[in-house]
Amino acid sequence: MFDDEFQDDRRDMEAELRAMLGDADFLKIVERVGGIRFYVPHEPERSNDKEGLGAEILTRLSNAYAGEYIKVPLARRWRADQYRLQGLSQADIARRLGMSESGVYKLLKSSPRAPKPKKPSRQMDLF
């Protein structure tokens, strides 16, 4: 039993859930039940869905984890990047993540950024 729990801790649930659900639905589940152990029902259509995830998400989860408790990650770094792409301020991101603005600054500073597109230049190439 201990080995099974250890293996579960080492799983990359963030990657598994993002691959299975896609970014939009992954964001939805993380915002609603991130940081807790979540019971995946055997029959999602009979579930009372108290978290409001929707039948489609529950069905996909049930196909992979029916009857199990899964550890839903907080995915703070990924969420911070998503919120930044949506144009939210650091204060708004901090509120959504439940952390300080300086913590958000450190998260965003440490995450890789896509290069900014270069502005067209009116200067001619000399070479």
Secondary structure topology:
Elements: H1 2-10, H2 13-33, E1 37-39, H3 55-65, E2 69-71, H4 76-85, H5 90-97, H6 101-110
Helix pairs in contact: 4-5, 5-6
Region (Disordered): 108-127
InterPro entries: Homeodomain-like_sf
Write a concise synopsis of the structure shown.
It contains six helices and two strands; from the N terminus they run ααβαβααα.
How far is it from the N-terminal to the C-terminal residue, by CA? 67 Å
State the strand order across the main sheet: 1-2
Could you name the ranges where pLDDT drops below 50 across 5 or more consecutive residues?
Answer: 1-7
User: pLDDT average, as an integer?
Assistant: 85
Tally of distinct domains: 2
- Any idea what the shape is? elongated
State the total count of DSSP E strands: 2
**Strand share of the residues?**
under 5%
Classify the secondary structure makeup into a structural class: mainly alpha
Helix segment tally: 6
Helix/strand order: HHEHEHHH
Q: Roughly how many Å is the radius of gyration?
A: 19 Å
Profile the largest sheet: 2 strands, antiparallel
Give the fraction of residues assigned to helices: 40-55%
